[in-house]
Design brief:
- The complex is a heterodimer of chains A (366) and B (331).
- By secondary structure, chain A is of the alpha/beta class.
- Chain A is 44% helix and 9% strand.
- Chain A has 14 helices and eight strands.
- In chain A, β3, α6 and β4 form a beta-alpha-beta unit.
- The relative contact order of chain A is 0.15.
- By secondary structure, chain B is of the alpha/beta class.
- Chain B has two domains: 181 residues, Thiamin diphosphate (ThDP)-binding fold, Pyr/PP domains (Rossmann fold); 128 residues, Rossmann fold.
- In chain B, the strands form three sheets. Chain B has a seven-stranded mixed β-sheet with strand order 3-2-4-5-7-6-12, sandwiched between helices. Chain B has a five-stranded mixed β-sheet with strand order 9-11-10-13-14, sandwiched between helices. Chain B has a two-stranded antiparallel ribbon with strand order 1-8.
- The termini of chain B are far apart.
- Chains A and B meet through α5 and α6 of A and α3, α4 and α5 of B.
- Chain A: InterPro entries: Alpha-ketoacid_DH_E1_comp (IPR050771), DH_E1 (IPR001017), PdhA/BkdA (IPR017596), THDP-binding (IPR029061).
- Chain A: Keywords: Oxidoreductase, Pyruvate, Thiamine pyrophosphate.
- Chain A: Its cofactor is thiamine diphosphate.
- Chain A: It comes from Microbulbifer halophilus.
């Protein structure tokens, strides 16, 4: 058979970024932001996220919280992402987000309230423009694209300083059309948007290898014509560096970026899940050796910026914060039943008065 | 003043709001240079620029979803779907997000979005181009569903929809896009949402319909009038939230009512209207409220579509059945 002659019309490479290896050794010169103070602050936020997750699971197990999705093992992704954003940027979170929400200034009490079945938790008092936690898979990536459209438009038409939309999703979300449609539009319209994928290897019980035949998730950016890179998602320095670079490029008008952060879900999907039903033996133990907190602590210790006393003091301080927030959560008054009508529309339509009044009377609102 | 068609009234309303409010953006497939497949956005890109009137990539989920993000940041997107039958990829975004963002965020964010789509049958179009599934949207809390039935109402209701702080699904009956002309002053006067329009007064029976079916419903009323039957014709226009009290006021007068819609019968808006009339006006009824609707079938290809769509004959027969009903008479 004659083999037809063809020529190459496109090619691509996917880079992987890491600063700290699994043992917490610097695998290359650290970026400028990686001062001892900054690294300690990142460590603190990851430690706080871990404590919040741990307590949230315990609250659920004792009937004081609804279903909760822990971020155990993935703290570097949320904290690294959140810390790379300006407060005026807009975050479009998915649902597995403790570290990022803490970085955005969302109260622990609010996080607990959301999962405790109280919609007021979504008020995000200190991040009022961020989108609420988004439960349907990948849909928030399109919201981020839309936010990006608005931010770019407001910069060009209303002279607003350029802000950036940042969204997160899990590896399973990259199988959805919303993901491709968001990347595609962001590429065509060169939107100020950054898409961070927490590749924790599992979409509930479906393993990464059963999710896509793509060698990396980062390369899914290639089809959209936008930059895509992979970072070690257990290395908070790498996550922050990659997201900060993408955010700044977006701010300069250089368009969107897809970032795949490689990590591992060291927990069940949610408190309603039992990963023991599907996780291969030994995988969890191997993954634990790569987890992000110990890695950064090792680095800081070896550089002389962390020790047992500092750890003890930090844990004491964080425990205090946590107790205060859990107490605030536990002593929240219940939302008024009629509140379910109050934010449906800007003004309650007449057609709903009767139902509203019926509920208000049942709920003792009148 | 020149008389304009319903689709021209849509264009006029879009232009008015694009001109009045820089936060208003029009987006969709082919809405730019092409002016939309039905020319509803004709000339708008030329006048307001490609930044305000944007052609999007071909992805309905995306169109529905980015509107949510744009609105959350204070813009007022008017998104066009080319045909109602192609909205469905966007349902997740419209139902799960546009309709819920205000509630989910406890009012700190909202979605002042208009999702426009040409809808309904009767234009000899290919499959999926003739759907009338307004009841899907009318079922969803947080949405408004609006269907204009004349050039003036298209103009006034679309202005109201764009100015409304919450998401509106605006369904344009494409069969009557160019069926009639009317003087529509470009005065920026919006019509009220959530209010019925009484298109004809009469004392014997209330005929309720919306969109293109009103054409046949009004013709049926005319035919009934020849036999001395006075029909009151009501166009709810806003199907959600429904102004049931204006309907009840009419039924109070007539004691008889027929609902006409081209959508399939089961779970259609007619069922809701009948149920609410029973709730509020059962004692006033002199006959059970009846429906003349599309069948519970797939919308047929166009060779059969005129059998599917309610015509004057079926509406008159339906009205006759209501008028001839007598208690205890059985069937």
């Amino acid at each position: 058979m004659h083999k037809p002659r063809m020529h190459l019309v496109a090619s691509f490479d996917i880079a992987h970024l890491q600063y700290l290896d699994e043992q917490g050794r610097a695998s290359q010169e650290l970026p400028d932001f990686a001062t001892p103070d900054t690294l300690q602050a990142l460590y603190r936020q990851m430690a706080l996220a871990r404590l919040v997750d741990d307590r949230a699971v315990k609250l659920q197990r004792t009937g004081r919280l609804g279903t909760y999705p822990s971020t155990l093992g993935q703290e570097a992704i949320g904290v690294g992402t959140g810390s790379a954003m300006d407060s005026a940027d807009i975050y479009c979170p998915y649902y597995r987000e403790t570290g990022a929400l803490l970085e955005r200034g969302v109260d622990i009490e609010e996080i607990l309230a959301i999962w405790g079945g109280d919609e007021r938790g979504q008020c995000f008092q200190h991040a009022p423009e961020d989108l609420p936690l988004c439960v349907p898979i990948a849909t928030q990536l399109l919201h981020a694209a839309g936010v990006g459209v608005a931010l770019k438009y407001k910069n060009e038409h209303f002279d607003e300083p350029q802000r950036v939309a940042v969204a997160s999703a899990g590896d399973g979300a990259t199988s959805r059309g919303d993901f491709y449609e968001a990347l595609n539009l962001a590429g065509v319209w060169q939107l100020p948007a950054v898409f961070v994928i927490n590749n924790n290897q599992w979409a509930i019980s479906v393993a990464r290898s059963d999710q896509t035949a793509s060698q990396t998730i980062a390369q899914k950016a290639v089809a959209a014509g936008i930059p895509g890179l992979q970072v070690d998602g257990n290395d908070v320095i790498a996550v922050r560096a990659a997201v900060a670079d993408a955010v700044e490029r977006a701010r300069r008008g250089e368009g969107p970026t897809l970032i795949e952060a490689l990590s591992y879900r060291l927990c069940d999907h949610t408190t309603a899940d039992d990963a023991g039903r599907y996780r291969p033996a030994g995988e969890l133990e191997r993954a634990q050796k790569r987890e992000p907190l110990a890695r950064l602590a090792h680095y800081l210790e070896s550089a002389g910026h962390w020790n047992e006393d500092a750890e003890t003091e930090l844990q004491r301080e964080l425990a205090e914060i946590l107790e205060r927030e859990v107490k605030a959560y536990s002593s929240r008054s219940k939302d008024r039943p009629a509140a379910m009508f109050e934010h449906l529309y800007a003004e309650l339509p007449e057609a709903l008065y009767e139902q509203h009044d019926e509920l208000a009377e049942r709920g003792g609102d009148r | 003043m020149a008389e304009i068609t319903l689709v021209e009234a849509v264009t006029q309303a879009l232009a008015h709001e694009l001109d009045a409010d820089e936060r208003v953006l029009v987006l969709g497939q082919d809405v730019g240079a092409n002016g939309g497949v039905f020319r509803a956005t004709d000339g708008l890109q030329e006048r307001f620029g490609a930044d305000r009137v944007r052609d999007t990539p071909l992805a309905e989920t995306m169109i529905a979803g980015i509107a949510v993000g744009m609105a959350a940041q204070g813009l007022k997107p008017v998104a066009e779907f080319q045909f109602m039958g192609f909205i469905y990829p966007g349902l997740d975004q419209i139902l799960s997000h546009a309709a819920r963002l205000r509630n989910r965020s406890r009012g700190r964010l909202c979605c002042p979005i208009v999702y426009r789509a040409p809808y309904g049958g009767g234009i000899r179009a290919p499959e999926h181009h003739s759907e009338s599934t307004e009841a899907l949207f009318a079922h969803i809390p947080g949405l408004r569903v609006v269907v204009p039935s004349s050039p003036a109402r298209a103009y006034g209701l679309l202005l109201a929809a764009i100015r409304d702080p919450d998401p509106v699904v605006f369904l344009e009956p494409k069969r009557i896009y160019r069926a009639a002309r009317q003087e529509v002053p470009d005065d920026g006067e919006a019509l009220p949402l959530d209010r019925c329009f009484r298109l004809r007064e009469g004392g014997d029976i209330t005929l309720i319909s919306w969109g293109a079916s009103l054409k046949e419903t009004l013709a049926a009323a005319e035919q009934l009038a020849e036999d001395g039957v006075g029909s009151e014709v009501i166009d709810p226009a806003t199907l959600k939230p429904l102004d049931i009290h204006s309907i009840i006021d009419s039924v109070e007068k007539t004691g008889r009512c027929l609902v006409v819609h081209e959508a399939a019968r089961t779970g259609g808006l007619g069922a809701e209207i009948v149920a609410q009339i029973n709730d509020y006006a059962f004692d006033l009824l002199r006959a059970p409220v009846q429906r003349v609707t599309g069948y519970d079938t797939v919308m047929p290809y166009y060779q059969l579509e005129n059998y599917y769509l309610p015509d004057v004959e079926r509406i008159v027969a339906g009205a006759r059945a209501v008028l001839d009903y007598s208690h205890g008479g059985g069937r």
